[in-house]
Design brief:
Elements lengths: L4 H11 L4 H8 L5 H5 L10 E7 L7 H10 L7 E6 L5 E7 L13 E2 L5 E9 L2 H10 L9 H12 L3 H4 L2 E9 L5 E5 L8 E4 L3 E5 L3 H4 L10 H9 L16 E2 L4 E6 L2 E6 L14 H11 L1
Antiparallel strand pairs: 1-3, 1-9, 2-3, 4-5, 5-6, 6-7, 7-11, 8-9, 8-10, 11-12
Helix pairs in contact: 5-6
Length: 294
């Protein structure tokens, strides 16, 4: 049933109620404030990631990354961790929901065995056991049972091509302590979120927009055009890079991003139309193929 008039505005407001930055602005335009925000949706627990990269090399203060991580604490009730680069210009934060290898072995941020690569990751790679076996034949040695460590080993051997081998959902960031390059990636359909903001001095990223706009590390302003569009369609910008905050961008589904020497490069690594399977011609062949997939 489609909402109309004032009720339509309230329905749209309910869709935005989880965004603390806009709550007061929206509430001022609705006489019955309580009815708009009375039934807020509680966020289901899941992992959350955050990070700060000071492009000019100045140190990240511990309270800066701690604040980002605390703002997404509801996403990960089972643990929290922070990591700093040797010069402290890069900091990663993680809130964990322990599912695969729930012990300390799965804690993040995770550093590779050789100390070169560091990862923060939200999601699950469903075929990580098969990938682990394949990587072991290539000489990889694993210390844990987590899929996070499998991603680190896959990155070392396959680089960005690892994404095509993954079956799952993810938002991840990997820092190379040798080259000082950062790699970010999102799954094929954007199931796991990854948002970022960049200024000449720094890049900040997180699983949620509020962890960015409350950072005070960049000036935040409302994108009025996005607000207007969302009031008409709650999913109007979900597939785009734009967000309610003009300075915050969303890494789109099926894209990866590199930060090297202060330059940001974004590329699309997945187009579903390029990977459509050939449909068997006969019913028996289709039934056999279905059985294989199932």
């Amino acid at each position: 049933l489609r909402c109309r008039g004032r009720d339509h505005f309230r329905c749209c407001c309910n869709g935005l109620a989880d965004w603390p930055l806009w709550r007061d602005m929206l509430a001022r335009f609705v006489p019955d404030r309580k009815s708009v925000f009375a039934n807020e949706v509680h966020v289901t627990a899941m992992c959350g990631i955050a990070g700060i990269v000071n492009i000019r090399g100045n140190a990240v203060e511990p309270n800066e990354i701690a604040r980002r991580t605390n703002l997404i604490a509801h996403r990960g009730p089972d643990g929290a961790g922070n990591w700093f680069s040797a010069d402290r210009s890069v900091a990663f934060g993680h809130r964990r929901l322990g599912i695969i290898d729930p012990g300390e072995g799965g804690n993040q941020p995770m550093v590779s065995a050789d100390g070169r690569h560091v990862i923060v990751y939200n999601g699950e790679v469903y075929n990580f056991i098969e990938l682990r076996r394949e990587l072991e034949t290539r000489g990889a040695i694993f210390r844990t049972k987590s899929d996070t460590e499998v991603i680190l080993a896959a990155w070392r051997i396959w680089g960005e091509e690892m994404l095509l081998r993954f079956n799952g959902m993810w938002a991840l960031a990997i820092f190379d302590t040798k080259s000082k390059a950062l790699f970010f990636a999102r799954d094929r359909f954007g199931i796991k979120p990854l948002l970022y903001a960049m200024t000449p001095d720094r890049l900040v990223f997180a699983s949620e927009q509020r962890a960015l706009v409350r950072s005070r590390l960049f000036p935040a302003s409302i994108d009025v055009h996005v607000v207007r569009r969302l009031l008409l369609d709650a999913f109007g910008v979900e597939g785009s890079e734009r967000t309610l905050c003009r300075e915050v961008r969303r890494l789109q589904a099926g894209h990866f991003m590199r930060l090297r020497e202060g330059r940001l490069e974004i590329r699309r690594w997945w187009r579903t139309i390029d990977h459509l399977p050939t449909i068997p011609k006969t019913e028996n062949e289709r039934a056999e193929r279905f059985g294989e997939l199932f």
